Amino acid sequence: MKKLLYVLFALLSINAIAQDFEYQVLFEGIGDNREYFSGKANSQTILGSRGAFEVGLDMDNHKVRAGLSHLHEFGSEINYHMPKLTLYYNYSDEQTEFLFGAFPRRGRINFPLAMLTDTLLYYRPNIEGMFGQVQWDWGWQNGFVDWVSRQTDVNRENFMAGFSGEIFYNSLFFENYLLLFHDAGAAIDLPDDHIRDYLGFALRGGIRTTENTVFTGNVKAGVMGSSFRERSVTNGFVNALSLFAETNGRWRNYGLKSVLHTGAGHRFAYGDRFYQLDNYWRTDLIWYFINHKNVKGTFNLSFHVIDWNDLDQQQQLSIIYVFGE
């Protein structure tokens, strides 16, 4: 038995040496002031900082990582938000990537704000489930499942699944998004509490500038659709369809982004509430004031035109500092 243990420890030591140790540390500064006088969305100020770290091992194309992510909102106690566990397996090669566990959302899930609002990056920075992506010379496609809430006597059972991708040819491209959210009840039934289902998609085609130009940008347009059902309440699904167009441009450290939605209002579980309106136009003036390899800083001045009658505004400041492997 002792000889067997010696052999086992020797094999484990050799295996550990064959693996590469990796780490990553992230700091995120958040400033988000929402002056929404129209009452169509929550008027609030979000100020805080996030710290996150990951450590892990890399062997060939396989990685295992563990860490913590914690948001501290200024003016609150340190335990106002509980730390989020990061723990996942990652496989990647030149064409595919797969993750399983609790892993960072940023850089992997990039849906329009109409479908997934940006506050998810503040309050739910991790996907808890799985993610997969396949890419080719002419495009890419990915999908994810996010288990949002486990059912208890008082907590609802929620999960979200989505697909997104793009195909392109020279400067032309076509992008697609599909999102499902299932909102089931708690284990103890409550009167007048019903299962809710959200389903939506967006399809847009466009053209972008070529690489290595002083000015970069794109123009894209298409349709966005959604379906909502509250079982035993709505008469089947309530469907909506709208025009969904966007233009982006950047020159040196300055950018412009403008998004137009007009048609019927949509209902997404975690979508920006402005898109519940029939007509909404958002324009962002952007200043990229830090452009270091490991540090990115942006300031957005946003204008929200509500049903062609009201004007709300917003200021966003973001500093993201990442170092490590």
Number of strands: 16
Judging from the principal axes of the Cα atoms, what is the shape? globular
Question: Can you tell me the number of structural domains?
Answer: 1
Major β-sheet strand ordering: 1-2-3-4-5-6-7-8-9-10-11-12-13-14-15-16
Give a topology summary:
Layout (H helix, E strand, L loop, with lengths): L1 H17 L1 E16 L8 E16 L2 E12 L10 E9 L3 E9 L14 H5 L2 E11 L2 E11 L7 E13 L2 E13 L11 E13 L6 E16 L7 E14 L2 E10 L15 E13 L3 E12 L3 E15 L1
Explained architecture:
This protein is mostly beta strands and 325 residues long. It has one domain. It contains 2 helices and 16 strands. Strands 1-2-3-4-5-6-7-8-9-10-11-12-13-14-15-16 form a 16-stranded antiparallel beta barrel.
List keywords for this structure.
325 residues, 16 strands, mainly beta, 2 helices, globular, 16-stranded antiparallel barrel
What would a concise description of this structure say?
It is built from two helices and 16 strands. The chain is mostly beta strands and 325 residues long. It has one domain.
